[in-house]
Amino acid sequence: VNTGSTLSNVILMPVSVYVISQSGWRSMFFLFAIITWVVVLIPSITLMRRRPEDMGLHPDGDDPNSTNANSEEILTKQEPVWTRREAMRTSAFWLVSISFAVASFAFQGINISMAPYMQDLNYGDAMVASALFFRAVVMTIGLPIMGLIAEKAHYASVRLFPFALQGTGSMLFLFGENPVILFIGLAIYGLGVTGIGVTQEVIWANYFGRYSLGRVRSAGFVATFGAGATGPVFMNLVYDLLNSYKPAFMLFLLFFFAASILIIFAKPPKPPRFINV
């Protein structure tokens, strides 16, 4: 799923640049509105299903036709059940929420300012577009790898790994005057972004189960989206005050480090009850 999201950046970025250069911003927004209806909204309404079992699918390795002693366990699975209030009383909920909120704050601040930062470093428009395209390609290629790594999210080292990558990328951006270092930073940072995306999906599902995932995850994402919305404001405020993006990069490096520490201590909570599904 996330591969499709990042692949869209690879495909649509050159398209948007071309449309803007030929017809302007209005035409680009009109084109994207049509694409959203045709490719996203209509298929999601007609094709999307709530869970794999609705399509006759089962978890990997489970054989519903098995005749061994565990066949009843395969056909009847127990899922943990949480109310939103119960989940919010656990330390795991807040550690996970705050970790990804801090990362979102830093990520959105960097993401919105990456192009003007490179322009401040005297890179031309073609170089800026190439660098962002390169990051999108790395993210697309790296997603399956990061997905395999994220399956081991019960290890603390795996949970902190994406945050460490983003922090390393932020550090390398401080030396972005060198194009080689800049591209290495973009590659490492892009892998961190993909790692955050898939790791948080695994953590929320593993910690609170599929049955309660919607109500719990939506509560946690209030902090994530709120922090992400303020990140660009903070980034540009720092620039306006200091006339440089680099102090913000240094602060974001600390934020990623703090998030990596918090996520280490996030342990799966004990479910209050289970339901057979």
Describe what you observe in this structure.
This protein is an all-alpha fold and 277 residues long. The protein has 10 helices and 2 strands. It has helices spanning 2-23, 25-47, 71-75, 84-88, 91-120, 125-150, 156-173, 179-208, 213-242, 246-264, and strands spanning 78-81, 273-276. The chain has a two-stranded antiparallel sheet. The longest helix has 30 residues, at 91-120. It starts with a helix and ends with a strand. 33% of the residues are buried.
SSE pattern, N- to C-terminal: HHHEHHHHHHHE
The fraction of residues assigned to DSSP E strands is under 5%
Major sheet characteristics? 2 strands, antiparallel
Integer-rounded radius of gyration: 21 Å
- Total of DSSP H or I helical runs spanning 4+ residues: 10
N-end to C-end Cα span: 24 Å
**What is the overall shape?**
globular
Question: Order of strands in the sheet with the most strands?
Answer: 1-2
> Got a strand count?
2
Structural class of the secondary elements?
A: mainly alpha
The stretches of 5 or more residues where confidence is low (pLDDT under 50) are 71-75
Helix content: over 70%
Task: Summarize the helices and strands and which ones pair or pack.
Blueprint: H1 2-23, H2 25-47, H3 71-75, E1 78-81, H4 84-88, H5 91-120, H6 125-150, H7 156-173, H8 179-208, H9 213-242, H10 246-264, E2 273-276
Antiparallel strand pairs: 1-2
Helix pairs in contact: 1-2, 1-6, 5-6, 5-8, 5-9, 5-10, 6-8, 7-8, 7-10
